Amino acid sequence: DHQTILRAWAVKDFAPNCPLYVQILKPENKFHIKFADHVVCEEEFKYAMLALNCICPATSTLITLLVHTSRGQTAPWEAFRQLTGTKQTLNRDSQQSPEQWQKMYGRCSGNEVYHINLEDSTFFAEYEGKSFTYASFHAHKKFGVCLIGVRKEDNKNILLNPGPRYIMSSTDICFYINITKEENSAFKKQEKQRKKHESKLSYHGASRLPVHSIIASMGTVAIDLQDTGCRTSSGPTLGLPSEGSKEGRRPSIAPVLEVADSSSLQTCDLLSDQSEDETTPSDDEVSAGLEYAKGYPPYSPYIGSSPTFCHLLHEKVPFCCLRLDKGCQHNYYEDAKAYGFKNKLIIVAAETAGNGLYNFIVPLRAYYRPKKELNPIVLLLDNPPDMHFLDAICWFPMVYYMVGSIDNLDDLLRCGVTFAANMVVVDKESTMSAEEDYMADAKTIVNVQTLFRLFSSLSIITELTHPANMRFMQFRAKDCYSLALSKLEKKEREKGSNLAFMFRLPFAAGRVFSISMLDTLLYQSFVKDYMISITRLLLGLDTTPGSGFLCSMKITEEDLWIRTYARLYQKLCSSTGDIPIGVYRTESQKLTTSESQISISVEEWEDTKDTKEQISYRGNHRNSTSSDQSDHPLLRRKSMQWARRLSRRVPRHSGKTAEKINQQRMNLYRRSERQELAELVKNRMKHLGLSPAGYDEMNDHQNTLSYILINPSPDTRLELNDIVYLIRPDPLAYVPNTAPSRKDSFCNTVGQDTREETQL
């Protein structure tokens, strides 16, 4: 950073009018180059993305795909079938085959963010004077584009989903997600032909709407005005409308209004969270100390952090109470279980508590996150944090730290890994300067693999130095599917693809991230000067009054009546004002299970009469150790056969003794590697005085694959457990005078400039 700062100063001194694009590592160095036109701070983006991955799965993959230019890459399906050795036919009604998910995921990956003036646009020109949500819904319905934000001509601030109260103006700049920009689309050519016959195709009424627009919106206008009320915070997200008078009629959805009326807006204070935050807290909340306040954090660990309205404590926590694993005079808790948290933990494993780690906490404590959904945050640090960092985090509720390492099982158990929803493993700075370049991730990868084997259902999000190393995440040596993906990646790299790794399962599922994936963000800002601002707004690094925020909702069985993505778009726009931008889908992975995961019981061995395998295996692995048996099911069969023959030669015991010996022998036969690992963890928990209850639930692991569909087509069918990415309107925009200024906040009495000068 010091060298980068000096170079930036040199350029500014030599050519003051030259636009300056700077990328630095540490957030505390930002104020040295605040004169630059565009600045990307790696640690800020990294921690904010890792934080959002915990509440909006695969946010890092979503952002990476949006900032990369691609043509909607698709894998060669016939070659893929040959590589995997599969000859199955593709079922059009099913999306379970590997080829189908890659086809959908690859096609949607070509979506990017573009901009255009409303008056010059074919997509949005007709929505002048209409509400933002009306324009977004109808543009998606007609053209398949997703309008996500606007910027006024006389204002530099971008507003993501300003909500139904915002009225579109002819001078507005519209930001939308699409496969290609409007100027290169086929609609532009059709528009030129349409203008030649405009007089014939126009409706000369008061509204002067084109005929094709009226026809396209007839289906929406004809829908009954039902279920116009907004959801409550405790009810389902997509309430089923009341049944119509006609039997067999499909449930209807309220239309998206051209201009939102005041009555509907008053009932749509969705995010003010009246049921949770504004009412009198219950006795349980008071006793547990959950009466949080909302305000701006009084202390930031570095200069230049954007002020964010957050959930805060009325009084800061003593530093001794921030230590999770050591009791003090205020509490006697020494492990995560003793605290009795209602929500699952988010654990962050890092080498040191750098200033950038502050940006992991802020998005998870932002004011628009419901109070009852806040997850406790545990920082597992190799080195003790500094006092100034503890000063910054002691105002946030349920934030703790512990000194330990992820390669120590006892430390993991103490910090509550068995109660965790997500485990975030941050790349260590000390390993980035390895002698062999790609060996920098070696220790991180092996530690994460150990975590995966011990806690198979734990959601682990890993940061790597080199994206190429993601092929070793959750590595299985004899997985034919991963081997086929590896060969495809080599072919994509030979073609010059800058996203050759995009079909790797860990990246598609958002379980791995590398900061080098964001290098293109700085390059894209040369053509799209708004990309850094939009990315910071999506990640919660910046907050603009009236601008929305990124969140997600899960499709449950009660929501399947909505059926398609287009109907979901209409339902959200007409009720809550949310704008969906994509879907995160998880499917059962019908792949060949790794041999290391297979255990064969005695009954299965008796039923299996595969003599060819036994004969061919008879001459191999004569001197294999017992540790190899878990990796080779055939060797396990051989050992069981040997044990049975041996048992026939030993003298027969009578009565209960023989029955007990036989039972123990059967248990040993059935014992798998998974059970051995589980027994190891349970023994350590008992040794530490921790209850092993709940650990068995973490071993309910099923082979699944997950991927992102950015701005899918309107006819895309929704499936159970789909997670929809939403840009939700700013709740404070609906409730005037809700957010105090920084100067009026209860925990801050000075302005930003004064604070920065004081800290400096």
From TrEMBL:
<feature type="region of interest" description="Disordered">
    <location>
        <begin position="611"/>
        <end position="634"/>
    </location>
</feature>
<feature type="domain" description="RCK N-terminal">
    <location>
        <begin position="343"/>
        <end position="483"/>
    </location>
</feature>
<keyword id="KW-0813">Transport</keyword>
<dbReference type="GO" id="GO:0015271">
    <property type="term" value="F:outward rectifier potassium channel activity"/>
</dbReference>
<keyword id="KW-0406">Ion transport</keyword>
<keyword id="KW-0633">Potassium transport</keyword>
<keyword id="KW-0631">Potassium channel</keyword>
<dbReference type="GO" id="GO:0005228">
    <property type="term" value="F:intracellular sodium-activated potassium channel activity"/>
</dbReference>
<dbReference type="InterPro" id="IPR047871">
    <property type="entry name" value="K_chnl_Slo-like"/>
</dbReference>
<keyword id="KW-0630">Potassium</keyword>
<keyword id="KW-0407">Ion channel</keyword>
<dbReference type="GO" id="GO:0005886">
    <property type="term" value="C:plasma membrane"/>
</dbReference>
<dbReference type="InterPro" id="IPR003148">
    <property type="entry name" value="RCK_N"/>
</dbReference>
<dbReference type="Pfam" id="PF03493">
    <property type="entry name" value="BK_channel_a"/>
</dbReference>
<keyword id="KW-1133">Transmembrane helix</keyword>
<dbReference type="InterPro" id="IPR003929">
    <property type="entry name" value="K_chnl_BK_asu"/>
</dbReference>
<protein>
    <submittedName>
        <fullName>KCNT2 protein</fullName>
    </submittedName>
</protein>
<keyword id="KW-0472">Membrane</keyword>
<keyword id="KW-0812">Transmembrane</keyword>
<dbReference type="Pfam" id="PF22614">
    <property type="entry name" value="Slo-like_RCK"/>
</dbReference>
